[in-house]
Amino acid sequence: MSTVDISLQQEVHALYRSHHSWLVGWLRRRLGCIHNANDLAQDTFLRVIDKSIRFTEVNEPRAFLSTIAHGLMVDHIRRKALEQAYIQAIAHLPYRSISSPENSIEFIETLMRIDILLDGLKPNVRKAFLLSRLEGMTYPDIAIKLGVSLRTVESHMADALRHILLKGL
């Protein structure tokens, strides 16, 4: 192991030792659950390690950590909401129709990726895109449903596709 690796490891250890309990408390207050707070704090420090930056250059370590943790927390909350929606959607199905736990997890992860790709779209742009791609509606039908012109739907679709292409890169 090189001197740089050892030095970086020592910096991460010092950052962890100095701020882990604070971060767990910060997350617990927002999530209301110590278990999720501990998990997300751990994930935060894993992200810190992945970034491989010099922490001596970080002026505000708590702001740095809370920014990373906030992103993870948003992802966690989104995933929980999607899982709950999925459970509600399949609740009325006969048991034989419900896919395996592995397929359910894969489906939820796919929904998460789609949600992340669509994040940041204006509501009507997102709605037009979903009506087209998920419900198979034509642009004229979408225009009628949303109460906008066909040109607006075309513009919304172009915006959505541009957004997805840029996020997917």
Describe this structure in words.
There is one protein chain. Helix 2 (34-51) packs across helix 3, helix 5 crosses helix 7 and helix 6 (139-146) packs across helix 7 (150-168). The longest helix is centred in the middle third of the chain and has 30 residues, at 61-90. With 169 residues, this protein is mostly helical. The protein has two domains: 1-99, Rna Polymerase Sigma Factor, Chain: A; 120-169, Arc Repressor Mutant, subunit A. The protein is built from seven helices and no strands. The chain has helices at residues 3-31, 34-51, 61-90, 101-118, 123-133, 139-146, 150-168.
Number of domains: 2
| Beta-strand segment tally | 0
How large is the share of residues in beta strands?
Answer: under 5%
Shape: extended
Helix content: over 70%
**Please, what is the average pLDDT?**
86
Instruction: Please work out how many helical segments DSSP would assign.
Output: 7
Give the helices and strands as they follow along the chain.
Answer: HHHHHHH
